[in-house]
Amino acid sequence: MKFTDGYWLIREGYNVQNPADIRDITYTSDSMTVFAATKIIATKGDTLNGTLLKADFSSPMPDVIRVKLFHHKGKINKGPAFELFPSDTNVQISVDEETAVLTSGQLSVQVNRKQGWNIDFNYAGKRITGSGWRAPAYIQDPDKKAYYREQLDLGVGEYIYGLGERFTPFVKNGQVVEIWNEDGGTSSEQSYKNIPFYLSSKGYGVFVNHPEKVSYEIASENVSRVQFSVEGEYLEYFIIGGATPKDVLDNYTKLTGKPALPPAWTFGLWLTTSFTTDYDEATVNHFVDGMAERDLPLSVFHFDCFWMKEYQWCDFEWDKDMFPDPEGMLRRLKDKGLKICAWINPYIAEKSHLFDEGMENGYLVKTPDGSVWQWDLWQAGMGLVDFTNPDAVKWYKSKLEVLIDQGVDCFKTDFGERIPTNVVYFDGSDPVKMHNYYTFLYNKAVFEVLEDKLGKGEAALFARSATVGGQQFPVHWGGDCSATYESMAETVRGGLSLGLSGFGFWSHDISGFENTAPPDIYKRWVQFGLLSSHSRLHGSTSYRVPWLFDEEAVDVVRKFTKLKCSIMPYLYNSAVESKERGLPMMRAMVLEYPQDPTCFTLDTQYMLGDSILVAPIFNKEGDVQYYLPEGKWTNYLTGEVLEGNRWYSENHGYMTLPMMIKPNTLLAVGKEDSRPDYDYADGVSLHLFELGDGASAQADIVNTLAEQELSVTASRSGNVIEVKASGAGKPWMLVLRGIGEVVSVDQGTAASGEHGAVITPAAGASSVTITLK
């Protein structure tokens, strides 16, 4: 939201007051408050009939500084509020005539007392950003509506990322961003997942702690600043520091919640009925059996909306005309080794028998006059479950429990964005704040019932909407994309932006939701989809099984599904890292290479975990351009070795793409390629790529309970590679990629293999020494 008319003038009718003269600073053992007049005070009389703005500084955890700017603090502040997880913090405060400094960890805020309003934020002694002249402001519009604004400095060459799943350009500089959840598809500036957190290429983050609408002007209203504003009498934000961008995300997710670890089976291929297609048990089995007959590993089958009767969403009951024996059908599908997902949303249509039940018991959101809020958009006469009512939550969960008992393993929690603001909630929550926050309560309730019924570590969603904290309830997917290369590219941008907003696990509708892709787009999107954290074939009006596209599509799905299953030991260890540190599995290049300026703007390639670079192909011709950072990189699919720190242009068929392994990588490859959940340590092959002299590489292998079973480190000195293993209770072997022969192996044997020399450790050996030619 803009308040100025160019750099010098204020928009007509707006009253903008900035802190101009610091009058006092008070402090306790863990916080300090700055009082600033909005004009220069020359005499005592100047203190009358004026505004005094306040700024509180404190720290909820090391390397994080909380800033609260406020005008009048007496206004009632209704919830909801984001759930935060503060920790013990040793705060240091020093105040003298020139400066006041609050320090938390290596992050500090310095108030310069003699310079009007001049605030510096420093990390490890280096300034990262600040709030200066005319930056913060208390504002009234022509209707006397109040706003609070802050502007933080943006340095030369500094880029801003994140702010949720955004399909606009990956670098947010120059954009206006409204944090307001909308069902806008993937081809607009709207977003299903709005997160008021951005990450800077300078290595810090800013989290605005407001669940309501936050308006950003990113190098737009003022081209050298990032501006954010909210309606009301106060504005609260956190500066989040870290030694690297990964550390910043770690700190942000410590504060707002770490992602849960999805069960290993969720990483396999999901197939759905699609949205408006016809399906019954015979149709479902035709597709499931067709996948098996073609040796296409399938892990999850999803029933989309019409598993329930039309006009009755959600009544949580199977359409008896289509599914006369749902329990038996689910049992038969599960006997084929499948997990089952069912579509739901938080709305109750009037035709559903649950509408009267919810209305009579006060389980549905109401209008100010006490009526049930309803509209006809999506479902005729639908109401909205009031998740602020504990009894409504229990009621909603009870309906899901029945489905879980029938055999459903997870839920696609669709919608949650179309939330009205002219309503009244059971707990008195502010309906404007609830618009974005509603999705948190919705997904939390569903995730909890899955955990309660299936056990800790077995819960998984397929969620579309999100707000701050929603990363705790994975998995999320990218919403309604189209069957075009342009939409595929915007989908990549959305996933990269969400990953830089604290979300670890993300998926998308392979080949696009709207329309039906031509075979070439289907095959290219399959490559990208099966090299994402989660992989789902889904569409709107047509089925997405590969043989309906062409026979080569069958081969592509088979190859890349098996490929993903085979690298699950690597992927699942990456997933554990996502759980522990809040890092995305599919990560922007800038996150892994923050010192390489070429990586700052890359949005058509990404890292899958910390060692695999993927460059999807966005055209029918198979042409691709991509950049490799420094070092020797190996194409996992072709074995070609390329020198980094340069761009490449290549052409690929549908069976290959740039899937590049970074140098000094020990990549864990499993012995299984038909399912994602197996014993990763048993018979694992550790592929060693381009280990440089003096370098080392490590691979950790966990089981499906996230317990470490094997850790292997390889170190090179000259022509000797030392390999050390711990926890080696199961057989494993080492593959020296690109090295055909070795001179000798101590505590092991060598043999020739498809990709290089294969080293098999002696029984019980915890170390192996390899001498190269």
Describe the structure.
- The chain has 773 residues and is of the alpha+beta class.
- The chain is 19% helix and 31% strand.
- It has 11 helices and 49 strands.
- The strands form 11 sheets. It has an 8-stranded antiparallel sheet with strand order 4-5-6-7-21-18-17-15.
- Strand 30 (509-510), helix 8 (519-529) and strand 31 form a beta-alpha-beta unit.
- The longest helix has 24 residues, at 431-454.
- The protein is globular.
- The mean pLDDT is 97.
List keywords for this structure.
alpha-D-xyloside xylohydrolase; 8-stranded antiparallel β-sheet; 11 helices; 49 strands; single chain; 6-stranded antiparallel β-sheet; globular; 773 residues; alpha+beta
Beta-strand proportion: 25-35%
* Helix content bin: 10-25%
Rg: 28 Å
Query: Which geometry do the CA atoms define?
Result: globular
Write down the overall mean pLDDT.
97
Q: Residue ranges: pLDDT <50 for 5 or more in a row?
A: none
Oligomer: single chain
* Overall number of strands: 49
Which structural class should the secondary elements be placed in? alpha+beta
Strand order, sheet with most strands = 4-5-6-7-21-18-17-15
Q: What summary fits the major beta sheet?
A: 8 strands, antiparallel
Distance between the termini: 65 Å
Supply the number of helical segments: 11
SSE inventory with pairings:
Layout: E1 4-5, E2 9-10, E3 15-17, E4 21-27, E5 32-37, E6 52-61, E7 64-70, E8 91-95, E9 99-104, E10 107-112, E11 119-123, E12 126-131, E13 137-140, E14 146-153, E15 160-164, E16 176-179, E17 194-200, E18 205-208, E19 214-218, E20 225-231, E21 234-240, H1 245-256, E22 269-272, H2 281-293, E23 300-303, H3 326-334, E24 339-344, E25 347-348, H4 353-361, E26 383-384, H5 390-406, E27 410-413, H6 431-454, E28 476-477, H7 485-499, E29 506-507, E30 509-510, H8 519-529, E31 535-537, H9 551-566, H10 568-581, E32 586-587, H11 589-592, E33 606-608, E34 612-614, E35 623-628, E36 632-635, E37 641-643, E38 646-651, E39 659-661, E40 665-669, E41 684-689, E42 696-702, E43 708-717, E44 720-726, E45 732-737, E46 742-746, E47 748-752, E48 756-761, E49 767-772
Parallel strand pairs: 22-23, 22-31, 23-24, 24-27, 28-29, 30-31, 41-45
Antiparallel strand pairs: 1-2, 3-13, 4-5, 5-6, 6-7, 7-21, 8-9, 9-10, 10-11, 11-12, 13-14, 14-20, 15-17, 16-19, 17-18, 18-21, 19-20, 25-26, 32-33, 33-34, 34-39, 35-38, 36-37, 36-39, 40-41, 42-43, 43-44, 44-49, 45-48, 46-49, 47-48
